[in-house]
Design goal:
Layout: H1 6-15, E1 19-23, H2 25-33, E2 38-43, H3 46-56, H4 61-67, E3 69-70, E4 87-92, H5 98-102, E5 110-113, H6 119-131, E6 136-139, H7 148-153, E7 163-165, E8 176-185, E9 196-199, H8 208-213, E10 216-219, H9 231-239
Parallel strand pairs: 2-3, 5-6, 5-9, 6-7, 8-9, 8-10
Antiparallel strand pairs: 1-4, 2-4
Helix pairs in contact: 3-4, 6-9
Length: 244
């Protein structure tokens, strides 16, 4: 980072694809736990930070206290979203090797989000994908999965697995599985656990071309009269039920 003012550094980091702004204790905790390179971190409440660290992240308590500089002024100039935990940081955005994601030998799916619109929802999808130990999350469209709002929604778990925005869904040897209400009801053991599970946008669903070229189309069984599920809920249901 440059030697410009702290306010300018945080402002510039939001606009630079090489960096990530992390807001709040829980996001910073997960980022550090999964190897984030923290370039700068500040807190307005060092006592509260120590208490939270001791209670919720004893494995990181000393590191968190050591990495966070105490500041007297509030965080209003550094962020549009003031975290209640009084901590904010800048980290280096990790590079993603797409070839390595696709050749991951584990029986773990790749989650593909087609043009998601809500950054909080996008983050929640990444959070559940990390919890389920997916091979990665790929995002098409204009939403940045490393935006601070998405980082908050994921509680910083972008650092726990490969997460990248791509121009189009790659064809690299894994079966495409479109998750769509018109598909075959999903059940345990139905699908290859190394599939790419593709989910459409919150409002419009899957692009018809994606649905038409998928190797299989599956639906999450729902009670009659329920028209849809939240995107992150759909990802969670699929991840925890599709494989055997």
């Amino acid at each position: 980072m440059t030697t410009t003012s702290r306010t300018a550094r945080f402002r510039d980091a939001r606009r630079d694809d090489h960096f990530v702004v992390i807001e709040g204790f829980h996001a910073l905790k997960h980022a550090m736990r999964f190897g984030a390179e923290i370039l700068e971190a500040v807190t307005t409440d060092p006592v509260g930070l120590r208490e939270l660290s001791g209670a919720l992240a004893p494995d990181l308590a000393s590191r968190l206290s050591g990495v966070c500089e105490e500041i007297d002024d509030d965080l209003a100039g550094l962020t549009d979203h003031l975290p209640r935990t009084g901590v904010i940081a800048i980290a280096r955005r990790p590079e993603v090797d797409l070839a390595a994601v696709f050749t991951d030998p584990r029986r773990a799916p790749i989650i593909v989000l087609e043009d998601p619109r809500n950054l909080g929802n996008l983050g929640a999808c990444i959070r559940v994908a990390a919890a389920a130990d997916a091979a990665g999350v790929l995002v098409t469209g204009t939403s940045d999965p490393w935006h601070p709002d998405a980082i908050r929604g994921a509680a910083g778990l972008q650092f726990a697995l490969p997460v990248a925005r791509v121009a189009e869904i790659p064809r690299r040897g894994r079966p495409w599985v479109a998750v769509d209400p018109d598909g075959v009801p999903m059940r345990p053991g139905l699908l290859d656990r190394r599939a790419m599970l593709i989910f459409g946008s919150e409002r419009h669903g899957l692009d018809p071309a994606t649905r038409a070229t998928a190797d299989r189309c599956v639906a999450i069984p729902m009670r009659e009269g329920v028209s849809s599920l939240n995107l992150a809920t759909s990802v969670a249901a699929a991840l925890y039920s599709f494989g055997g």
